[in-house]
């Protein structure tokens, strides 16, 4: 029965969530000694779960909808109304395949090459500068590479505001208040720009390469055989560009890990491909990014001794699952070696969702994310040397999404060898 699981007493716990951030759910799973508890967030009942079994439950195809499942502000910045994530069943599947089609290996490879070229041109510029903030530079690199890959024209004049807009949307995703409003304001700008691009393609004034994201979004037909609404196509284009820029966070965390483990940086600098893969996976496991995903149950079901009713709001703790001691030995240690010979069950390492991306809402961009992270770290370790001056590198777990406070400043940048 519903009463058998631990329940946070009181009317609302949103303040505790904002105070404790990524630790809010793990703290309570630990306190209760369970993988499930009930609470109230934004004045609504929520059931929080974590772990591999919870991920299997949550990602059972067709079990949850993302409609009315996220805090509205976060929703508008991260995953848009009318977009793929808000669809269910066959309508979702058809739209999702449009994204999966962009992730063919040769397409991913091309994005890696474009990003490497952008990094190298930045490296050349940095050598004349006293210091740079890696997070800002990584966002600039990724915005330019993503647009080029997507067939989106971007000149030096538009690259800077576009980068700033994507950055603000990502940064404002987890909050209510000024950071969020800024994101919402800038996003109207970005949407207008993206709509104009779709319209230019449809009018034949712009011809992006076949198979590029812009060409695919402009030409995609939904299940009713009609082209996507311009507004929806624009939103889906942004849904490729913006999260690609967000990979900058993982790159900064990777640079932080290299700084804290110089012996690992030395292995990466030698170009050890196997270690690079393990290191990138450990960055995605260890560092906090998207704290949780939410869904509303479409039908009643039972799990872990609890009866879920249709309409229940359930939050799966991604960060908590990536730090679950039942899955990861010594989870609070940064240890790439844990991934040697590792095979995922699909429900264990879940920074970008779980299960089969073709069947559910798991992120379609994981290959891109891992590829961009490896490309960046390989170049940062192998092609340049730099100093990491005194700065605040702490990663506040109360801020969502978080980052090293300084954004990771490096100085005295010089070419290696
Ligand atoms: C969905 C995380 C990068 C495109 C998601 C979800 C998460 C996530 C947690 C939601 C899963 C769910 O609701 O069950 C991340 C993180 C990234 C990242 C941490 C690192 C930067 C990317 C990239 C792309 C992308 C590079 C570019 C194509 C999407 C799309 C969805 C999605 C389109 C919606 C999928 C659906 O509803 O079926 N991502 N993502 N993401 N992501 Fe990512």
Q: Could you give a short description of this structure?
A:
This protein has 417 residues and is α+β, with helices and mostly antiparallel strands. Helices cover 49% and strands 11% of the residues.
Q: How do the helices and strands line up, and which of them pair or pack?
A:
Blueprint: H1 14-20, H2 24-32, E1 36-41, E2 44-49, H3 52-58, E3 64-65, H4 72-78, H5 89-100, H6 105-126, E4 131-133, H7 134-150, H8 156-171, H9 178-202, H10 213-219, H11 230-260, H12 262-269, H13 273-286, E5 292-297, E6 301-303, E7 306-308, E8 313-317, H14 318-322, H15 366-382, E9 384-387, E10 409-415
Parallel strand pairs: 2-8
Antiparallel strand pairs: 1-2, 3-5, 4-10, 5-8, 6-7, 9-10
How many beta strands in the DSSP annotation? Answer: 10
Strand order, sheet with most strands: 1-2-8-5-3
Report the CATH C-level class: Mainly Alpha
Helix % is 40-55%
At CATH level 3, the topology is: Cytochrome p450
Global geometry: globular
Give average pLDDT, whole number. 92
Q: What's the number of structural domains? A: 1
Query: Helical segment tally?
Result: 15
Description:
With 417 residues, the chain is α+β, with helices and mostly antiparallel strands. It has one domain (2-415): Cytochrome p450 (Orthogonal Bundle), CATH 1.10.630. Helices cover 49% and strands 11% of the residues. The protein has 15 helices and 10 strands. The chain has helices spanning 14-20, 24-32, 52-58, 72-78, 89-100, 105-126, 134-150, 156-171, 178-202, 213-219, 230-260, 262-269, 273-286, 318-322, 366-382; strands at residues 36-41, 44-49, 64-65, 131-133, 292-297, 301-303, 306-308, 313-317, 384-387, 409-415. The protein has a 5-stranded mixed sheet, with helices on both faces. Helix 9 crosses helix 10 (213-219), helix 11 packs across helix 12 and helix 11 (230-260) packs across helix 13 (273-286). Protoporphyrin IX containing FE (HEM) binds at residues 66, 84-85, 96, 99, 239-240, 243-244, 246-247, 289-290, 293, 351-353, 361-365, 368-369.
